[in-house]
Amino acid sequence: MQFLCNTFVFCHSHFTTCEVSCYCVKNEKKKKSVMEEAQFELIVPCFPTKFPYPAGVASGATRAALTRHFALQNNAADISAKEGSQETMATMIGMALGMLLARITTENPLAIWFSFLSLTMFHMLANYKAVRCLALDSLNFERSTILLQHFVETGQVLSPKQVSTMEHVLPLWTTLRLSKSAKLLHTDVKLGLRVSSLDHLEMANLLNSAGSFYRKAKYLLVERKGIVSVIMHKDSTAADILKSYIHALVMANLMDEKRSLHLESQSWMDKQYEIFIQKLKSSGWKTERLLSPSVIWKADWYSESLDEKND
Fold it and tell me: CA 112, CA 102: separation in Å to the nearest integer?
């Protein structure tokens, strides 16, 4: 029962982000490796009935996402079978070497602990290096930020391989190489704002901007205390979500400048968005959708065009 409860709680807290994770599939893969090491090797001996399943859930979710990524010829079943056979062989070799090591280190606690800690650190380092080799071609929050910032500065789009060396595998607060001057736009954007959370003044400004800047859009943008929030229309598509997020990143990028955020960001979208998307496609990026948690809160509104009002 405790197994099932732990699995249920983990799935409930991650059910909209299994593929996306907090940052990307790379981060979830690394998190799963750390969870396996900590749970199965360190915690489980003390609490053998409480912790094993969350790592298995994360492992299955990321395995499915990565299998789809490697299935370049729509042969996910073949890739999955090959991965399973390789994992089985690696497990068998590991068990044989483990039994040999156990025989060598018998009745020597110091050698046991040294072997365990060194092999555990080596395993985690190997996982980190393997995840670093991944060059994912899907757009998530951080990759979209990196691509947009480089495009605004240079007019060019980075390739998936170039972006893979720049994105974070570990959580941002653990990354020592993150400089204080780095501007991570995606941390200033919130996708899927609940309309009922707005006060009267914010609602009035929202209605004004809806009539002025977002007549044909399936989304609305709201700036609140340095955070750009996105309100999605109930009829919005995956392409609309991607467009709204890029628009929000553009607005967040302009926030330090004393300008009209809605006017300037909309002007950029009108002139540059289609060019940006076409360059992404030509560089090998998948632009059909944004890898993001499911947008639970959506709204419904109707804005008359100027032509309809004149009639």
Answer: 8
